[in-house]
Write a structure and sequence with these properties.
Helices cover 0% and strands 55% of the residues. It has no helices and five strands. A five-stranded mixed beta barrel has the order 1-2-3-5-4. The protein is globular.
């Protein structure tokens, strides 16, 4: 719950098979206001800086190899 601060991130360019529709995507480690940390996919890949504020949003992450949608949280900048 609440906003999260981007602690570190990486851009994946060799994506897993489930993410073949995307040529690359960003993953980050976030720390929420209550101290809990989470790993998540970012909605942007450009102009990222540690310390940025993000909010989690429920989203479809990808389709698995059987074609079923996989839902979860992505993080979008505030």
């Amino acid at each position: 719950k609440g906003d999260a601060t981007l602690l570190t991130y990486t851009i994946l360019k060799a994506v897993p098979a489930e993410f073949q529709e995307q040529k690359s995507y960003a993953l980050g480690i976030f720390e929420f206001e209550n101290g809990i940390r989470a790993l998540g996919q970012l909605t942007i890949k450009e102009n990222l800086k540690t310390g940025m504020k993000f909010r989690p949003i429920k989203s479809i992450l990808t389709k698995n190899l059987d074609g079923k949608e996989v839902s979860g949280f992505k993080f979008e900048p505030i």
